[in-house]
Amino acid sequence: MKEHPMIPAARPRFVEDIYTPDEQAVLFDIIRTRGPWRLIAAQHFSSAEEFLAVAGGRNHTRMSAPALSDFLTPTFRGYIGNYGTVLEQSAHDIYYSRRLLDMIKSMHGASYAVPNSFLFNLRAPAHSFDAGHFDSPSWRGMDKFNTPTWLLSVMAKSGLFDRWELRSGQVIAYYYDSDVDGGFTYWPEGPDAPPARYPAPFRNSGILTHNEKMFHRGEASGPRHMRSVPDLQLDSAIHGVGDSEWAICNGDEEIARYHDRHMRFLFHYGAFVFDDMAELRRYFEHTDDLDLDTAVAIFTDDLRGRGIRCPEPTDPLHDRDFVSVLNSAYAMAPAEYPAEAPLDVPNTA
After folding, report:
1. Domain containing residue 161: CATH number
2. Of 162, 153, 116, the residue nearest 132 (C-alpha)
3. 3-state SS string over 157-225?
4. DSSP state of 62
5. Is residue 345 part of a domain?
6. Total domains, the chain
7. 24 vs 312, residue with greater confidence
8. Closest of 227, 229, 228 to residue 254, by C-alpha
9. Which range marks the domain in which residue 280 is found?
10. 46-59 pLDDT per residue, tens
11. Is the pTM of this model over 0.70?
12. What whole-number distance in Å separates Cα of residue 245 and Cα of residue 263?
């Protein structure tokens, strides 16, 4: 029997003291002074269908005609490193940290590791409409730089593309000095198995994990009475104010302001791993890459072989009918949640 496609190489491991005091000073200076930062949803999705392909659960299927705006939360993102290079020069030594790379190699028993993305999330008090997702996986030739997040996620759930998989690992550091929700829920044995969680608070602590092959979610966080931002829009942005506050704005209009103590921060470091030089060269020399036409053909053949009608997409990356067919055919989502961290469902009435 084939193993479930969404089971990590190893269970997450809790890690403390991830960054030194000097490293933390560099990282927080970046997010406080380099903004404004855009919503995660605005950076990765263009429709509710695309969001649900990544983070939709069984409870969301009862929603009638959902819109992307129904799922907005004040969760913002920026990048410190990407494309295999550091983007913020003050963080150069952190991005190429031997300690972080060795941690990720150890999880896979790999010989080589290449830095990938180094991002941060900053989140005001918020609900969590994320029913459980996994990080954007990558394949040789198809990754987040040329393929939408929703399609990468469906490719992973299908289990049809393992030949081209780029294995990865992540070190995630959280900063949330509160025990009001704010934990990390994960499904290490697959979405149909019971979940586990790491509860808050977090103080420069977090996990070594394989999040591209494991459903997980950041739980709701912040004071419960502060979790709604009525005027939040897809183009809302956040920036630091002074030494301890954060303002969310729509253009020049400030719509909300929060103190550090109400915020939840994370730094998400990722790397690709390779067992040997042949595997490393295959990636960098592009000798066995996957492309969009091949991926669409593999999906189409699989669906037709299962008796599922799949119209030829006019625009495979954004065709809503194509998205809906793939969502339905390869649907999977966590079956249960911890009692301490239930799933929030948007009120769309």
Report:
1. 2.60.120.620
2. 153
3. HHCCCHHHECCEEEEEEEEECCCCECCEEEECCCCCCCCEEECCCEEEEEEEECHHHCEEEECCECCHH
4. G
5. no
6. 1
7. 24
8. 229
9. 13-329
10. 676 777 777 666 65
11. yes
12. 9
